[in-house]
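Title: Comparing notes on inverse folding

I've been comparing how different people in this forum approach sequence design from structure. To keep things fair, I'm posting one structure and asking everyone to reply with a full sequence. Here's the target:
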């Protein structure tokens, strides 16, 4: 018997995770550090395990979205620096200090609150200044010279805040996945200019960073002191059709199984809403995966799964916990067979990108949406080395 629920599960190949990291490391300038981004449970791959793999492979920093994700890494034994890329309520300053986690500082209002909370907690919070150079999401605004006076004032004020220590500065690109779009260069120039203005104010930064996956691949000259790859670590492409200068290996496969098959006469409706009717006598199999597992309802009547290396079409609506596939052309398909929902089986592959396109979204979202009732099972050297069960940890 397997030691995880073989209903629907995700297999994560840690050798591929490591290979992707090493390919990125080899491509990035030796002067640039790497911050591996493991937010959102490592893009759905299982943060504690993938973070450990990046740690062993030599990453310099980790990036997460919030303080709980940072704590999760500390509990998993990660001792390297961690940057929270987003918001932490100031009342958690004590936790930032205790866990030695660096926080993004995005405004003076927030800086004052965080500084006061850090003082109360009796320690110093490390921060990286975030500059908004055109994404208009978070950060001190610098969209052009007209923003220089405010930036200078805020920079000096931030540097003077007690109980905060600024040691990095960064920005985030909006269109680095479009190699021909001049806006990335505009953002980079604004960033360089803003950093120079802050340095004139006496601020000093040991780490300047701006590149996400697409940025570091498409604009090697913008790698600076550190880069922040996310999606490519998992072997997924930053954008459909973007040329890749390095080889990536998708690390996750989503699997389920066939648990009932039946032969239906022509004209038989299948699933909720009866949007599908068998056009002829069809053999239909039922799979224990549904939209609650992240297999979106928008895949109804559209996506393919792989059984014995062959494609089978999902017919009718995807339900919360189950869906049906037409297995007429796979006569040896029988209950108990493993079904590959995302991944490779024999010569056929259903990629994360294929499923994302059918869902009307991007591979990032498809990976993140894989449900928390889907156990993650980890492999190294072809052997199972661990598992994550979110329901019964
Ligand atoms: C998510 C994120 C990244 C990584 O982005 P990818 O496109 O996955 O490489 C880098 N920096 C910031 C600030 C992010 O939020």
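Reply #1:
Here's my take.
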């Amino acid at each position: 018997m397997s030691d995880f629920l073989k209903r629907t599960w995700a297999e994560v190949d840690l050798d591929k995770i490591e290979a992707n990291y090493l390919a990125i490391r080899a491509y990035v300038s030796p002067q640039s550090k790497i911050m591996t981004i493991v937010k959102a449970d490592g893009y759905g791959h299982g943060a504690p395990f993938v973070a450990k793999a990046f740690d062993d492979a030599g990453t310099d920093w980790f990036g997460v979205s919030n303080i709980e994700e940072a704590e999760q890494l500390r509990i998993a034994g990660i001792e390297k620096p961690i940057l929270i890329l987003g918001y932490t309520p100031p009342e958690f300053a004590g936790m930032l200090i205790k866990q030695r986690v660096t926080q993004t500082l995005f405004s003076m209002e927030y800086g004052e609150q965080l500084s006061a909370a850090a003082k109360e907690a009796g320690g110093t919070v490390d921060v990286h200044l975030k500059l908004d150079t055109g994404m208009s999401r978070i950060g001190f605004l610098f969209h052009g010279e007209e923003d220089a006076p405010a930036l200078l004032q805020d920079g000096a004020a931030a540097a003077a805040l007690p109980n905060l220590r600024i040691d990095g500065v960064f920005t985030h690109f909006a269109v680095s996945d479009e190699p021909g779009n001049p806006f990335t260069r505009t953002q980079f120039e604004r960033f360089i200019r803003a950093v120079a203005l802050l340095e004139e104010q006496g601020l000093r930064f040991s780490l300047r960073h701006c590149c996400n996956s697409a940025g570091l691949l498409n604009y090697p000259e913008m790698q600076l002191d550190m880069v922040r790859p996310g999606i490519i670590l998992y072997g997924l492409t930053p954008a459909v059709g973007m040329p890749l200068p390095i080889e990536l290996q998708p690390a996750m496969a989503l699997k389920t199984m066939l648990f009932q098959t039946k032969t239906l006469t022509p004209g038989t409706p299948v699933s909720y809403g009866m949007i599908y009717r068998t056009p002829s006598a069809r053999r239909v199999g039922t799979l224990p995966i549904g939209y609650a597992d992240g297999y979106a309802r928008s895949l109804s009547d559209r996506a393919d799964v792989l059984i014995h290396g062959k494609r089978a079409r999902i017919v009718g609506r995807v339900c919360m916990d189950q869906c049906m596939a037409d297995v007429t052309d796979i006569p040896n398909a029988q209950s108990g067979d493993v079904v590959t929902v995302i991944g490779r089986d024999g010569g056929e592959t259903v990629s994360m990108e294929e499923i994302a396109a059918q869902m009307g979204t991007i591979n990032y979202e498809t990976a993140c949406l894989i449900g928390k009732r889907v156990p993650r099972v980890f492999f190294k050297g072809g052997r199972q080395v661990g598992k994550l069960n979110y329901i019964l940890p």
